Amino acid sequence: MNNMALEGDLSDFSLVDIIQLIDLGKKTGGVELHGARGRAQVGGWLYFRDGKIDSAVAGMLEGDEAAYTLFSCTAGPFCFRENLPLPPRNINVSNEIIIMEGIQRQDTWSCINERVTSDEMILKLVPNPPKASREINLVTDKWRVLTMINGKQTVTQIAQKSGLRQFRAYQIVAELIEAGLIEGHIDQLPPEPLYPVLERIAMGGLGDSARVLLNDANRRAGLRPNDPSLHPSQITRAVRIFEQATTLLLGPSRARLLADQLRAHVMQQPVYRG
Q1: pLDDT value for 1
Q2: How many Å apart are CA 165 and CA 163, to the nearest integer?
Q3: What is the spatial distance between Cα 143 and Cα 241, in angstroms, rounded to a whole number?
Q4: What angle in degrees, to the nearest 10, is found between the helix axes of 232-250 and 194-206?
C-alpha cells in the first residue's frame, strides 16, 4: 500500500481495525482521533513505526495508558497521517498486547460510565451508608481515594491528586458509588470562555502572531469561536489547521506539542461534552 489514506469515524472503523491495517501496510505515521467516552470527550495520537505502535499521547497521558485510553472512544473522527516526524518512543509492548488490554479497558470503561456519568461530578460521602457497605474491607488504593472525598472536588481532580493512574482512580470511584459509600452530583456552573484561553495558550508558544493564525484557522474551519453549540471535533479541526500553519514557524515537533496543548484544553471543557 502506497500513500495510504485512512480517515473516517470510529463508529464505522474501530481502533483495532486501524491498528491492524497500519500494521499490515508496515506504515510509519500517526493516527489522530477524537471520540466520546460516555459523556466525556477523549482525544489524542497513536504513533506507528513500520506498522508497530511506537508512542501515544491522550491529553496529559502518555505511553501505554494513553493508548489504552484511546480504546475507550467508540465514536468520533480519526485521520492517519503518513510519514510524520515521530515523538520519542514511549511504548515497548506489541500491537497485540495493546489491542488485548485496550479491548478489556473499553469494556470496563462502559461499566464505569454507568456510575461516573461526568468527569465534573463532585463526590461526597454518604452520611448513613448501608450496613453492608460499612463492613467492606477497603484496600489501600480505595482508602486513598475515599479519604480525598470532601464534597468539593470533582472526579478529575481526585484522580489527578491521588497519584493513581486515571483508569484505576475512576474504577475505584465507580466501585465506591456502587457500594453505597459515596455519591456524586454535577454543579451547573457557567462555563469558562474557551477561546480566550486557547488564544493565551497559543500566544504562549508562538507570540502575538498566534492570534492571527488562530483566527485564520477558525475562519477556514467555518467556526465562530465562542459558539456554545460547537462540538470538540469541530474545534479540533481548527486546531489541526493551526498546527499546519505553525509547522513552518516552529518545526513539526514543537507545532504538534503546541497543538496538543490546545486539544487537551478543549477536551477538558464540560460545556463542550456531548
Answers
A1: 45
A2: 7
A3: 45
A4: 10
Ranges of each domain in the chain: 6-111, 121-185, 194-272
User: Do residues 141 and 168 make contact, with C-beta atoms less than 8 angstroms apart?
Assistant: yes
How far is 197 from 98, CA to CA, in rounded Å?
34
Phi, psi angle pair for 253, to nearest 5°:
-65, -50
- Mind listing the pLDDT tens digit for each residue in 2-56? 555 688 888 888 899 999 999 999 999 999 888 877 667 788 899 999 999 999 9
C-alpha cell at position 99: 489491542
Cα 217 to Cα 231: distance, rounded to the nearest angstrom: 16
Nearest to 210 by CA among 241, 248, 242: 242
Rounded Cα distance, 221 and 234, in Å:
8
DSSP assigned state of 74: -
Using one digit for the tens of pLDDT, what is the confidence trace for 131-185? 655 556 778 888 889 989 988 888 888 988 888 888 899 999 999 998 888 888 8
Mean pLDDT, the chain, rounded, equals 83
Q: What is the pLDDT of residue 19?
A: 95
C-alpha cell at 86: 515521530
Could you say which architecture CATH assigns to the domain 121-185? Answer: Orthogonal Bundle (1.10)
Phi then psi dihedrals of residue 81, to 5 deg: -115, 120
CA torsion 268→164→31→97, rounded to 10°?
-160
CA distances from 204 to 197, 251, 262 (A): 11, 16, 11
Cell numbers at residue 231, please?
462540538
Predicted confidence at residue 248, as pLDDT, reads 83
- Quote the CA–CA distance of 32 and 79 in Å, as a whole number: 5
- Size of the chain, expressed as the number of residues it contains: 274
